[in-house]
Amino acid sequence: RNIFKAKKSNAEKSKKMEKEEKFFRETFMYDKEINVINTATAECSVPSKRKVDLPVTAGEQLDVIDVTEGNAVICRNSEGRYGYVLVEHLNFR
User: Fold this and answer.
1) How far apart are the C-alpha atoms of 73 and 67, rounded to whole Å?
2) Which listed residue, of 4, 33, 39, 59, carries a Cα 20 to 30 Å from 81's Cα?
3) Which H/E stretch holds residue 20?
4) Sequence ranges of the domains in the chain
C-alpha cells in the first residue's frame, strides 16, 4: 500500500514543480534554460514583500538560478518555488 502512496506523491510533487516553473517563466519572462549556478543557505527568515520575492526561512537551502543586475539573485527552494532573494540574506559557504 505504501508503494502506491509514494508513487502518487511523487507524481503530485512533479506536477507541482512543473506548475511552479511555468509560473516562474511567465512572471519573470525567463526563456533561458534553468541551470543551478550555485547553492546558498538563507541567513535569516524573510517574508516576501512582492509576488516575485521568494519567502525564505533561516537555514533553508536554496538553488541559485540566475544573478540579476541589482543586489538580488533568482533562487529556487526545495518546494520548487522561484523568486528574488537579496544577496545580503544568503550565505554561499
Assistant:
1) 5
2) 4
3) helix 2-28
4) 2-91
pTM of the model: 0.83
Burial class (CB in 10 A: 0-12, 13-18, 19+), 28: middle
What is the CATH code of the structural domain delimited by 2-91? Answer: 2.30.30.40
Which residue is it, cell 527568515? Answer: 45
pLDDT digits (tens, 9 = 90+) for 26-67: 999 999 999 999 999 999 999 988 999 999 999 999 999 999
Main-chain phi, psi angles of 91, to 5 degrees: -120, 120
Question: How far, in whole angstroms, is CA 44 from its chain's centroid?
Answer: 16
